Amino acid sequence: MNLILSIIFLTFLATQHTHGDVFDKLTSQGRHLLDQANIPGTLIRQCSCVEQEECFEIMKSQVHSCIAPCWKGFNKVTDRPDDLKKCFDSKNDMLVSLLDCFEDNIHSCDDSHAQSIMIPKKNISEVFRLGVLKVESSKKGSINLIAPIQHIVDAAGEVALCVKNCFIEKNTPSFCFDDKNCQPKLEESDAKKSLRKCTKGINWKSEAGEICECSVKAGLEDLSQYCPMFKLMASRAIRRRN
Ligand SMILES: *[C@@H]1O[C@H](CO)[C@@H](O)[C@H](O)[C@H]1NC(C)=O
User: Fold this and answer.
1) How confident is residue 3, by pLDDT bands cut at 50, 70 and 90?
2) Which terminus in the chain has less CB density within 10 A, N or C?
C-alpha cells in the first residue's frame, strides 16, 4: 500500500543527484528542494515521535485510498490493470520494511520529552509541488532510452500525479502536522544517508526485473525488451558482491 508513496519518494531522492539541470538553473542557485520549501523566518516545534507516527500513519492510509481510484490511469496501456497492481502488491512487504527502516533512521522526530526544539517551518504543499517539478525535469535526460515505452511512462506519471492531487485534496485545508502544530525535521543529508543504509541489502535490479516480467504478463508487452537488461544487471551486481 505504501508503494506509490515510496516510488515518488525514491524518485524524488534519486533525482536529487542530478546537478545542474534546467530546473536548478531556473529556480535557485543549487539550493536543495527541501530548503526551498522553507517558509522564510518561520519556526515550528519539532514533532515528538508519537505525533510523527500518528501523522505518518494517516498519510499512508490516505495514499492507500488514493491509489485505488487513480490506478485506472493504467487502463490506457493494459486491459488487465488489476493484474498489474498485483505485480506491485507482491513487493509490499519489502517496501513496508524499507519505509520502516527509513523512518527509524532519519531521526526526524524529537524523542526527548521536553518538546521544545524549534526547526525551520516548511510549506508541505510546496514540497510536493517542487517534487513534481523536479521529477518532470529529470525525465528530459533519458528520452531516447524510454521512447519505446513512452506511453507506459506517461500512464505511470498520470497515476502518480493523480495520487498526489488526491493526497493534497485530502489534506486541504490542513495537514495532520498543521493540526498538531509541529513538523518532522527532514534534512536531505540525513534522508540520503538513511536511504543508502536501508537499501543496502536489496538487489534493486533483481526486484525491478521481477516486476518487469510480471508487468509484461499483465499486458505491458512493450516492456519485455527491458526485462533482460534488469536481469543482466542483477546478475552482475550479485557477482560483484560475492
Ligand atoms: C505554500 O505553497 C503553496 C503552493 O505550493 C502556496 O499556494 C501557498 O501560498 C504557500 N503557503 C505559504 C504559507 O507560504
Assistant:
1) very low
2) C
